[in-house]
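Hi W., the GLP complex you wanted:
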Amino acid sequence: MEIKVVENYQQMSLKAADIVADQVNQKKDSVLGLATGSTPEGMYARLVEMYRVKMIDFASVVTFNLDEYTALSPKHPQSYHCYMNRHLFDHINIKPENTHIPHGNNEQDISEICREYDYKIFSMGGIDLQILGIGVNGHIGFNEPGQYLQTRTHLVELAEETIEANSRFFSSPEEVPRRAITMGMGSIMHAKKIILLASGESKAPVIQKSVSGRISTDIPASLLQLHRDIVLIVDKQAVSLL
Ligand code: GLP
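Structure:
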């Protein structure tokens, strides 16, 4: 596990965008695993700038998002579908049919949707570069802490800390969806390369636990220590407890 410490959020975003651009420039039809949340917003903004000055071309790129709330319509402004359109897809030349975000409401459909999602990732040859943020409780995607972690894409009940943390995007905590579909730990760990971004003091305790040399399902991100090609791009505040 490589840890690159940068000065601030801006530097983290630029560094991450450079890694994505290098990946896509080396392999035009790269399969990217994408994350949402406030952390990667700066990286997406930089990728849009790079696209405008022809430093990156998304024409053949394929994407798979990590997760999505189940009870929200993809048209809801806080859905991850809208997030991706707003921050990236609407501004670049990616083909809509090459973008994938899990979506489903009805429980029976969901298990089928999850199976198909994993199959699609597999049939595209797996994820070349996975971008991750990290929840304050150590979740990645929506793989929440618990006794067990799941390997495959699945339906998840969100942890209280996650609902609370994400309530800043909604007008009240009651509005935050309680469930989501997320890629499992296996899909993430099978990515050929991973970059995990973290910025700010609020992430310092969880970054400390995630790189401690110990692995626990209570800190899902700690499993990433077993990945062969992972880079943490973190600002000084996020590593203030290391
Ligand atoms: C969300 C997402 C994660 C994200 C995390 C951190 O709930 N499901 O993919 O990494 O929480 O979000 P933020 O970057 O806003 O701190």
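The longest strand covers residues 193-198.

W.
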